[in-house]
Amino acid sequence: MTALPAVSKKKLGLVIDLDTCVGCHACAVSCKEWNAGGIAGPLTDEKPYGDDPAGVWFNRVHSYEIEALDAQPAMTLHFPRSCLHCETPACVTVCPTGASYKRAEDGIVLVDEDKCIGCKLCSWACPYGAREYSPVEGVMKKCTLCVDRIYNENIPEASRQPACVQACPTRARHFGDLGDENSAVSKLVAERGGVALMPELGYAPVNRYLPPRARRAGAATPASPPAENLETKELPSLLRWLDRALSR
Amino acid sequence: MHPAFSVIFFTTLSGAGYGLWFWTMVAIPLLDDQARHSGLALLVPLALGFVLVAVGLSSSVLHLGKPLRAWRAFSQWRSSWLSREGVLAMTTFVPLAYFAAASFSRVPFSNGLGGVAALWLAVGSIATVLCTAMIYASLRPIPAWSHRLVPAVYLVFALHTGALIALTIGLRTFAIGNEGAALLILLTSMLAWRLKRRYWQDIDRGVLPVTRNSALGLPADREIKQFERPHTEANYLTKEMGFVLARKHSRRLRLIAVLLFALVPALCALPLWFVPMAHPTPLLALACASALLGTFVERWLFFAEAKHVVMTYY
Amino acid sequence: MAPMSEPSLDLQKPVGDELKQTTCYMCACRCGINVHLRDGKIRYIEGNPAHPVNRGVLCAKGSAGIMQHYSPARLRKPMLRTGERGANEFREIEWDEALTLAATWLGETRARDPDRLAFFTGRDQSQALTGWWAQQYGTINYAAHGGFCSVNMAAGGLYTLGGSFWEFGEPDWEHTRYLMLWGVAEDHDSNPIKLGLGHLKGSGAKIVAVNPVRTGYGAIADEWVGIRPGTDGLFAFALIHELLKADRIDLDYLVRYTNAHWLVVQNPGGADDGLFARDADGQALCAVRGDATASPHPRPLSPGERGDEILLPLGEGARRADEGNAVATNLIPANTPDISPRIVGDVTLPDGRRAVPVFHLVAERYLDPQYAPDAVSDRCGIPADTIRRIAREIAAAAFDSDVNLPVAWTDTHGRRHASMRGRPVAMHAMRGISAHSNGFHTCRALHLLQLLLGAVDAPGSFRYQPPFPRPIPPANRPGKSRGADGKLDAPPLGFIHGPEDLLVDAQGQPRRLDHAYSWSYPLAVHGMLHTVIRNAWAGDPNTIDVLFLFMANMSWNSAMNTTETMRWLTDKDEHGEYRIPKIIYSDAYASEMTAYADLVLPDTTYLERFDAISLLDRPISDADCASDAIRHPVLSAPEQAAGRDVRGFQSVLLDLGARLKLPAMTEADGTPKYRDYADYIVRHERAPGVGLLAGWRGEDGSQSGKGAPNPAQLEKYIANGGFWREAIPASARYYKMANRDYLEWSAKLGFIAKPEPVVLQLYSETLQKFRLAAQGHGPVQPPAAQRERVATYFDPLPIWYEPFEGAQTTVADFPLSAVTQRPPFMYHAWGSQNAWLRQITARNYLYLHPSLAEKQGVLDGDWVHVDSHHGRITVQAKLVANMQPDTVWTWNAIGKRRGAWKLSKNSPESKQGFLLNHLISDITPRGDYANADPVTGQAAWFDLRVRLSKAEAQDGSSPQFAPLAGADPSDAPLRYGAMFRKSK
Ligand SMILES: Nc1nc2c(c(=O)[nH]1)N[C@H]1C(S)=C(S)[C@@H](COP(=O)(O)OP(=O)(O)OC[C@H]3O[C@@H](n4cnc5c(=O)[nH]c(N)nc54)[C@H](O)[C@@H]3O)O[C@H]1N2
Ligand SMILES: Nc1nc2c(c(=O)[nH]1)N[C@H]1C(S)=C(S)[C@@H](COP(=O)(O)OP(=O)(O)OC[C@H]3O[C@@H](n4cnc5c(=O)[nH]c(N)nc54)[C@H](O)[C@@H]3O)O[C@H]1N2
Ligand code: SF4
Ligand code: SF4
Ligand code: SF4
Ligand code: SF4
Ligand code: SF4
Ligand SMILES: [Mo]
Q1: How near does any CA of chain C get to the CA of B237, in Å?
Q2: Measured from the CB, is residue C696 less than 6 Å from ligand 1?
Q3: Which atom of ligand 5 is nearest to A173's Cα?
Q4: What strands, in cross-sheet order, belong to the sheet with C723-727?
Q5: Which CATH number do you get for residue A37?
Q6: What pTM was estimated for this model as a whole?
Q7: Range scoring the smallest mean pLDDT among B39-53, C397-411, C503-517
Q8: N or C: which end of chain B has fewer CB atoms below 10 A?
């Protein structure tokens, strides 16, 4: 049903640490890999070996450059994007068929591909660029929060996480219940000042991004002069090491 | 936004169809008795309207990834404007069916039931057009669509093109005469032009509801540039939302649109008013064709000029 | 709303029906993977959480393994060339024909002269087999790809520390407070570094990236030092200068673990000049106070103790050694424990020669004002204040921290230490340092900096990974001569200890085809793959009969001078015969190089064969554990054989060896000794008890490191997730170069011959021996023309010089540096055939700084000509400010030759993509030497100097080469995974 369920207590989502993300695309590819064969698969690729390859990805990694400030040079920011599993997402309410829905139980936003008519309206309604239409399949697809992993008892408990979280080599991605303020992810968000993206649009995203920490380049001018000023032009400056009692 | 021809086609034609139906229903009280009693007279505009609506609807269904499942779109009227539009579109077929049956069985339109049906169709047509508009107007990520004038624009264009068709196929002769027709055309042309002008002025200010910084959750005082896109080649999002129309093209196209949907019809209307004419149909047909074409261009621009917030950070 | 309306999802579907654990080979990092199979197809590849390398994480390439395995570019069968070489026209043949042909060619060549076979391998990790095979065959002309990769790192490290950066050492991720990354983009240790960086982000350590470009690891660094390429040595010297000036150095560490106090003979012009003063037993000597032979306080050190506080009287005599008044000094063996050796001052040896301690030379050289921050700042492009600040910061991090591990340990003198003192400044460096013609010395400069801080294998610093450290230099020398059985006396690659080890003829000319171990590149310990094709074509020093290549895309992205390389490969002599008569090549995919082979031996993919990731080769150990691993076929062979017939190259090599009747590969009755590579892995012994794998040795599998072959060894590996690891005892994890427990453990496992300490070499006597030879001393001397070069570049202490390409061109002509970086999601050329990875980057751009672009009138997206002294490319530019303004860069190996890799001929990779390689020459601008480091022969990819000009808009990059023959791929959509959704 595209009407939104009552806000669930459990709000499963991702927390992505922009201070740690090196932009390696591991999350994007592992997502593609898991979901290609998962409940939302295939993630069809058009012209896979041709002139303009294009396929369905649930997670895409952007890179930006943040202009230099006086105190620090230009910064590079890597920014992975996937569905934020919003609390009040228009992508669900605009859907004419009920294919797009938000799970009452845990807040995961999904597409029921058997109902989807491929009208693309939900992709227009999503400001986060999280919906992926496949012209070949004729239906809309999106991040499933790996719902077929996180509850899957055939997977060892420690690995019951989204594929992107599992793969991330810097461990910049965290998964958990953002509705529970005592969860590890909620604490992380509180500690690091995690932000919601574009809150002004009113979608109330669940995922949080941890902003890059201020870079610690240190002051360019020395706080104190070098400890010792030596006359280096002459050999005798070495003499201070002459009678140093060393222990070997 | 990517201007999809099927959707442009759909909104233009179905809009005109609903407009035609609306005017036809409005005309019923104005008809002389004979016409009012002969259902056949109304059958032509109703049928033409049906063709327009049906062609429009089916083109929009063909635009779907899964056309065979289109019926599912009726289910979510409680939240979805698209669903509402579908449902309303279907309900308008009820009075239509009544009129069709009535005219074949020569039941006069003017009876009570006819009145209910007429009201139903008139209101239903307007409501359907407004639903179509609301599909776009409800999309906050596309400010050019969620603009407050969008429902009015959709409505006025439906009425404008609907009126022109109605007048061309002869509704004028029953009721309002050439002068009335001229007045109506001038009025709707003018309204369409004023609305559009206002709308364009607004969207040219280009205020997006969000900044790139907000999209990235960063403080507003850092300047952020694109370094690398996630994929070097185009993907669904860049194709769908990343359509960019050069400013100079958009200027020219706007001019052409206004010329076609407002100026040409208005110019056609003037002689109607001043010059007594027994057969104004060619002029009206010209006005009508021009307005439809103009609306088509206007609709194309409505898509092509609309920016999705996704593009602030893509 | 009612959850009733939600569809019911099958959330309990097992991932696959089979789980196989093996080792990734989408790159050389070698992570452990769990391969889930469903109905015989790969359903999902994930990191193995138990694996020591990646601990469960997996990079983009690893996750895209599915598409690599099912790539349409896979070779299907052996192929014999039918058209002209390079046209890519082949006929598929059966293995029997292919092997017979190869054995005939190789047999004839061996009969004529084994050196007429040039056997070079690329991106493999089976040098333990290939090097051994070459030795059995008897050719000296063997090497792997290290010479064009990072031999500067390997040699710089092994000749200084007995270990090295590369993937043979690692920062102490757990304890470091300050990490400097020098010229690192991805590294071979991709996932471990990413895991480590993620950890440091949590621990609050400061990360400094020294790199002209700020992406990837640099993006998350706390500080980015946008250095000008090729100047890191200067920067390091300036840091050393500051540390010395401020006396912020760890002298105790230096005298305990390095040769800082060893006496160096000062006898200009003499045959012993610059050599260590030694006693009759050859022990290096040091100077101690005149009245002491050993310290009066032979007691164990307590944690954090600075040492003996008794100040020795200022040695008047030492100060005036030149006046022959050095009586206050006693000479004793430098390795004597519990002494307080002198580290500066002149000393007169008993025979009257002068000598000074190594540290004296170090201090003298780097205190020189030419290395002051203000003096190097302009050239490096780093503000002098920044250099001073960083020097202060690293000193503070190293000396003012409280990182001390409460772990008792025993040094090689048997002294107990209550704890392990931390020096939590770690460094890691890679090709930004090594891919320059001054890279060897720059690498040594970094090691010197680390040693002055006491930051090698101390808690928080750079740490050795077993089997390192090893003796300096490692004992094994390269093979030089053949015995009666045609076998080489040692494997062709080894370590040079002095001029007498070189492979030169009586005239001092190179013996090897690649000129490694010649006077031009004496310490080319990994060979020089980048010179092989030119020299084979030119017959320099000799012509060859067969060029046998494995897994190296030598006609394209691993070539310098691509255009000429393609010509050399196809050039014919006056008789119409190819100048390089026969080319055999093994690849798994339709790369640019397969087109140039006469005979193609198709390899399997990494999921279909046995491989040994051996400690004898490039180990995957970490600083706390020794590990090795295997790959094994995880897919059903018959199913994979549908429509293709490929064989693992290692097995093919053993088969060829048996066909050639090489004794080591043949039984007495002439039958093959090894069934296949798996059999070899298990049964082959390099030395008694030492084989390719260290785990589960001994007949019952109870031994580690050394032990008799265990027939069930591979099963043990497979049952253990494909790897073996043995933890280093807790007391042995730091100070490994002098830690008794470690060295004994290392010897027990067979990594070193004897548990002897490894004394770290600030000053390299090995280098000095070459310099002496160049000065006319010793039995083996360079030809006259080479003397100055050898004398200049064999400085026993690190030096800096302008990289050759810059030195031999002018800044006016070529004002910019041009470098490449590895994209994290591509492995060289392999990635682009991958349907998923190529969607991330199907074309590359040249990145320019906006200030440079403005000067040139170039706008974002414009096309530009880029010219070097060697060639021109025309490519599309993008403007970004996160880089050093006098540098341009692009991603490596994205550009493809049209028709290669089974991509469409107008794919963005071939139409718009490009290589910088078209600009890189294989020889210096002057044309006298390879474009390489003069010590190690390392290819100097990043010395490239260019100029830029705006070009007309183009629809594709240039140069373009004739498309390789072959049909374009089908444009049918790829719906991988659809079958799993249907299947139950
Ligand atoms: N401009 C520039 N050029 C560079 C560099 C640079 O930084 N800048 N880096 C240099 C360095 S360090 C290196 S190491 C080289 C790397 O360059 P190469 O060693 O040439 O690396 P690849 O392009 O990956 O080519 C290796 C070949 O191995 C094949 N292959 C892949 N898997 C298998 C397999 O399982 N079996 C077999 N038999 N073959 C297989 C591939 O198809 C490919 O043809 O590039 C060098 N070139
Ligand atoms: N994903 C991925 N991983 C790989 C590979 C791959 O192709 N893809 N290849 C593997 C191979 S064969 C190798 S050799 C390693 C190489 O691993 P890296 O050494 O990390 O590889 P490069 O990309 O060559 O990185 C060189 C870095 O040095 C910088 N640089 C260039 N010149 C200078 C300089 O003068 N000074 C300093 N300080 N920096 C400089 C460049 O900007 C770049 O960031 O990576 C291995 N890992
Ligand atoms: S991110 Fe987009 S697709 Fe996901 S819930 Fe929010 S609006 Fe919907
Ligand atoms: S594309 Fe599918 S999921 Fe999206 S709004 Fe249309 S029917 Fe709903
Ligand atoms: S949660 Fe799962 S579906 Fe969503 S981005 Fe991560 S891997 Fe992809
Ligand atoms: S895998 Fe982790 S580090 Fe890599 S791009 Fe994704 S979030 Fe960033
Ligand atoms: S770093 Fe990536 S490609 Fe390399 S071995 Fe590990 S998972 Fe495989
Ligand atoms: Mo390399």
Answers
A1: 14
A2: no
A3: 6
A4: C611-613, C625-631, C723-727
A5: 3.30.70.20
A6: 0.95
A7: B39-53
A8: C
